[in-house]
Amino acid sequence: MGTAKLKKTDSTERATAWLRQHGGTLLCFLLLALVVHDIFGTHGYLAMRHTRQEIDKVKADIDQLNKENLQLEQQVKELKSDPHKIEKITRDELGLARPGEVIIKIPQSQLLPQESSAKP
User: What's the rounded Cα separation, in Å, for the pair 81 and 72?
Assistant: First the structure.
């Protein structure tokens, strides 16, 4: 019985001595591992920063789409109420004319050289 207590005391003393000798280093490694995980982990600082940037980009996209929606709503209101706007679209895009009018279309290939020579 005395030998068992001696062995138990001896192993406890060795563990205590080992912890005293290497405990600070072990604690530093654990602390370093926690800091690295907090920075580079899946929910760490860098991941959160990347997610924040994505959220800001999506908010900017939403704002841009809301502006476009407002512009389109304004165009719809104008098309419903402004006959001059409707006439302009029918003339420009559909090529329609009033009775007695003649529409002359000039091909784009003939327009480009004249425009480039007029610019300089």
Answer: 14
CA dihedral 72, 75, 81, 84 (to 10 degrees): -160
What is the 3 state secondary structure string of 59-71?
A: HHHHHHHHHHHHH
| DSSP 8-class letter at 22 | H
Give the pLDDT confidence of 12-56 residue by residue, as tens digits: 888 899 889 999 999 999 999 999 999 988 889 999 999 999 999
Q: Cα–Cα–Cα angle for 32, 34, 35, nearest 5°?
A: 65
Residue with tokens 């959160």, as numbered in its chain: 48
